[in-house]
Amino acid sequence: MSDETGFASLEARVEAADRLLAMPQVVFEVSRLLDDDESTQPQIAAALGRDPGLVAHVLRLANSPAYAPARGVDSIERAVAMLGRDVLQRLVVASAVTRSMNTLPEQERLPLETFWRHSAYCAVIARQLAQEVAPRAAGVVFLAGLLHDLGKLLLFSQSPEAAHRAFLASLDTAQGPSPQAAEREQMGFDHARLGGALAERWGLPEALVEGIAWHHDPLSASDRHRPSVALVHLANTGAHLAEIDSRDWADAPPLEEQAWAIAGVSPEMLLQAVEDAQHEVLAVQALSDPEVGTPAG
Predict the structure, then answer these.
(1) Tens digits of per-residue pLDDT, 28-65?
(2) What is the pTM assigned to this prediction?
(3) Per CATH, is 109-288 categorized as 1.10.3210.10?
(4) Helices (H) and strands (E) in the chain, counts
(5) Which of 118, 208, 260, 271 is the most buried (most CB within 10 A)?
């Protein structure tokens, strides 16, 4: 399939996904207020307050280990004051996206529980690595890790058979195509490109768009965001190891060798982050899947 045909198909898929995962109008209004230096905290809180479920999700993320506030964040006003407008804007968008993703029809090929477990591991490991080498990027890479496989969930929801055929093709032989290459052969684009295109359409911050779009190909990221994308790339491989409780690199997706130097991370650091993630992942998974870790009533 040609690049031109693939791009047209990708555009059509993004249009369909945008309709399927309709972003609440309040998200765009809140983002506008957060971009407006003259807006006030009460105005922001009032706009966001029209969607109580979104407020609750934002506050759960704000109080998560990724941000580890010294004091609890119990209101949007406090979130603005303690975290700043840029961070709050990312939390609002990420909360809206994760809530929308949880409304997708359940299907057998990629259950939501499996999807969110991998996403939570990737988010936790990315944040732990960032805290070692780029602390200011910890929040961004956490959210990029949480949302990195947005396109995969969409593919398995919209075209489960084609997505599954691509997955099986990647398993045919030891020399078979990568899962991303198999997706491109089947559909003209891969899940990372689809997720990145949808994130861009929604107006997500550039760092998140690139973290989603290039998490399998960090060398294609812009110079500005390549180090944080490389952290998500490494964390994705670490998440696969954590899910099967393995420390054997042969069990993980292949890595871009230059990612180690770009991110400033060693293999030993990644394996330690995999170990440490085991203690935190359930709490983070619960940020996206409210039923995880919820006590029985």
Answers:
(1) 888 888 878 899 888 988 888 888 888 887 888 778 77
(2) 0.80
(3) yes
(4) 17, 0
(5) 208
